[in-house]
Amino acid sequence: MAGAARAEEDEIPCDWLGNPVSCADCPHEETRAAGRCEFGRACVMDRRARRIDRFFATNPAQADKHLAHPYFEVRTLAARYASPFRLTALLADPEPDVRAMAALKLPVARLTPLMRDPEPKVRIALAQRLTGDALAALFDDPDYSVRLAAARRAEPALLVRLIADPDPTVRREAARRAPAYALPGMTGDSDPLVRIAVAKRLPADGLVMMAQDPDFRVRFVCAERLPAELVGALVDDEDEVVREAARGRAAKEPG
Fold first, then answer.
1. Among the listed residues 155, 157, 189, 154, the one whose alpha carbon sits nearest the alpha carbon of residue 172
2. What count of other Cβ atoms lies within 10 Å of the Cβ of residue 54?
3. Per-residue three-class SS string for 26-85
4. With 1 labelled, which of 100, 156, 194, 243 sits at a CA distance of 20 to 30 A?
5. Residue 106's closest CA among 127, 79, 138?
6. Is residue 231 part of a domain?
7. Of 60, 82, 104, which residue constitutes the final position of a domain?
8. How far apart are CA 228 and CA 213, in angstroms?
């Protein structure tokens, strides 16, 4: 990281068209005179996003004036600092990064058009803002990354809808956070990582059902969590790690 930062500092600053940046051509003479921008470090004329962001962080009042800039990085970072009341027009911006930033900053009531945005990254940004049933509407999104983003923020009760999601990463999130009553329906999931997540949460009476799981990792979780009196056949499991865990639990049995 330090090497990359040094390489960036040594690079000749260029604008988004590849032309060298020159303070002599900059329209922000007063800003420069006041020490609120710096060549090669905090500059809205530069093509580097980090330098553009530093400029707006120091000069947020300039953000509204750059929302129609031809370079998408400038529009995106200007949207981060601009007045939310100026961002509605960006919902139709041709660049998904700009629309995603607008989704993060606009009032929630203005975000409905983005539910149909063609870019997953925009709908993921939308998932960071919505709640309740509006957020759960993204559970039907065709892109798994959007459904996952929604699942990570949704209330546990809503995650019951995702226990049969076609993507295992989404089902794992449901297994980690869905209400306990939904877990028995996931004990036979086709993905062992989902079953492991289920086994880590099931109460003992439900966990007994998973002690014969074909994946040794699931059985290991069972051996670690089951009460000594319920470890049963796991003490003779075909896998050594499972056997040791089960025998360790069984050894704690009274008498």
1. 189
2. 19
3. CCCHHHHHCCCCECCCECCCCCCHHHHHHHHHHCHHHHHHHCCCCCHHHHHHHHHHCCHH
4. 100
5. 79
6. yes
7. 82
8. 18
Q: Is residue 23 part of a domain?
A: yes
pLDDT band at 254 (very low <50, low <70, confident <90, very high): low
Cα distance between residue 13 and residue 118, in whole Å? 34
Tell me if 101 is assigned to some domain: no
The CA-CA-CA angle for residues 185, 250, 225, to 5°, reads: 30
pLDDT digits (tens, 9 = 90+) for 24-65: 878 888 888 788 899 999 999 999 999 999 999 999 999 999
For the chain, the straight-line distance linking the first and the last C-alpha, in angstroms and rounded, comes to 59
Q: What is the pLDDT of residues 94-107, one digit of tens each?
A: 999 999 999 999 99
CB contact at 8 A, 22 and 6 = no
Range of the domain at 208: 203-255
Percent of the chain with pLDDT over 90: 81
Assess if residue 193 is contained within a domain.
Answer: no
Number of structural domains the chain divides into? 2
Tokens 């470890």 correspond to 231
Last residue of some domain: 39, 65, 82? 82
Cα distances (Å, whole numbers) of residue 183 to 153, 160, 176, 224: 19, 9, 9, 18
Mean pLDDT, residues 151-159: 97
Q: How much is the pLDDT for 255?
A: 46
Residue that has been written with the tokens 């049933």 in this structure: 133
DSSP 94: S
Measured CA to CA, the distance from residue 232 to residue 151 in angstroms comes to 36
Cα-based torsion angle of the residue sequence 162, 212, 224, 201 in order, rounded to the nearest 10 degrees: 20
